[in-house]
Amino acid sequence: MVERLPEHAHLRPRPGPVVLCIMDGVGIGDGSSDDAVAAAHTPVLDHLLSTCPNLALRAHGVAVGLPSNKDMGNSEVGHNAMGAGRVFDQGAKLVDGALATGSAWQTEVWKNLIAGKTLHLIGLLSDGNVHSHVDHLYILLARALEEGVARVRLHVLTDGRDVAGRSALTWIEPLEAAMADHRASGRDWAIASGGGRMLITMDRYEADWAMVEAGWNCHVHARGRSFASATEAVNTLYAEDDDVNDQYLPAFVIGGSDGSIRDGDSVLFMNFRGDRALEITRAFEGEVPFDRGGAPDVYYAGMMQYDGDLKLPKNFLVDPPAIDRPVGEYLAAAGVRTFACSETQKFGHVTFFFNGNRSGYIDEALETYLEVPSDNVSFDERPWMKAAEITDAVVAAIGSGDYEHVRLNYANGDMVGHTGALDATRIAVEVVDLCLARLVDAVRKADGLLLVTADHGNADQMWMRNKKGEVALDEEGDPVPRTSHSLNRVPFVVYDPRGELAVRDGDHGLAAIGTTLIELCGLCAPEGYVEGLTASQ
Fold this sequence. Notes:
Layout: E1 18-23, H1 36-39, H2 43-51, E2 54-57, H3 75-84, H4 91-101, H5 108-113, E3 119-124, H6 134-146, E4 151-158, H7 168-184, E5 188-196, H8 209-219, E6 225-227, H9 230-240, E7 252-254, E8 266-269, H10 278-285, E9 299-304, E10 316-318, H11 327-333, E11 338-343, H12 344-353, E12 367-372, H13 387-400, E13 405-410, H14 412-415, H15 422-446, E14 449-453, E15 490-495, E16 501-503, H16 511-520, E17 534-536
Parallel strand pairs: 1-13, 1-14, 3-4, 3-8, 4-5, 6-7, 8-9, 9-10, 11-12, 11-13
Antiparallel strand pairs: 2-15, 5-7, 14-15, 16-17
Helix pairs in contact: 3-12, 3-16, 13-15
């Protein structure tokens, strides 16, 4: 446990708590017709921005530990940065380095992977760089070729979420061509199975174990609709449903690939991000709430270790970021009582990711974590999600007097934004604004402080743009929905009922929020933390 920090000379705790409200996916757009944030009726947020100290924070690229400023931020790295108070190199950058330097090939994990009867590679196939990157796959394949691996099977998860909604063939077609070239050279390499990331394999926070079961049956047991090729599968599924995008493609297998996973094989799950990799990892390494129909005896590894506390997976190719001294440890050392709440879709973000990729409580005597179960439906059908229930719980926590710090995440702007449904996303933002009004009132009554921000953009840019910055149109002349995050900055607003606080001008990133929390709880920021965002007037 870290030592207790000295008290801050100027920022003193208020009677009420310091509340951190994270409006997931609500960035600062350009006000175009596809900016669901600007289009939404948001009188509360508008009033806060016009009357309270506020800043626009960087929430993508190097500001949150990603390789370049072309890389979109995401909820995992955003909450890591907030909870760390510093910027740590994240999964994408760490994997880039390990593959570029060749350090990954020197590990016992890689040596065991290539020693299997068949090397199976499972993961998200795109250049979204949020959960995975297609370049990593090609580097792995090049090394496997150099090492003389005779038999490889690929199990591809189509994206449509961190990239354009119907872009799967961008990566599948050249990958199939490469596999054909390898077969022509006498190697038994092929794509074996696939399906959409929101239907199979990549569930998170145990929201829908049926997804994992479907992925297990597809990849391990080769159960799914059969096609001659992955390209045929995608084209057929597109033609059968004009509304389906890559996120929701049903499971498919490639006939004749003989791609089931058997005893003596090796499996590498290629995603570097942990939240949507843990459950399929448990299927290979632990207990799961479905009948696996016989689990093969394989050597399993992850691109990274997805949960350091649970030690899942046991074997991993690249060391994950080692986030030490998170904000939560300092608050606990100071005896600060904390309440954290979100619905299932983002619960791990205000707990696990905020706490530096640490499972469970830091100090159970001081912390209360509340998960509101998410609905298992398409989020554009119920854009209100569980915002009201989260608000009920948070308002009660603020009014109870039991906590000095409260943090919450409204998932609406991100999860509905990912559907590409503009009108539903506008409603989602309006729902969050309604809830924000209740938070403001509760904080005012408690004589506390409210920090309003976001972890990245999404709802602020709902249509794709071409290289000229113009809205991309489909064959019928309609805008192409954008289902991925944006590169826009995010708001940071300080609601202080007493009007005593100001914000520091400057080019700040999300990590500064962690420092700000510590200081507003009346403590000096620890050594190495970035500069905080607030100061007394």
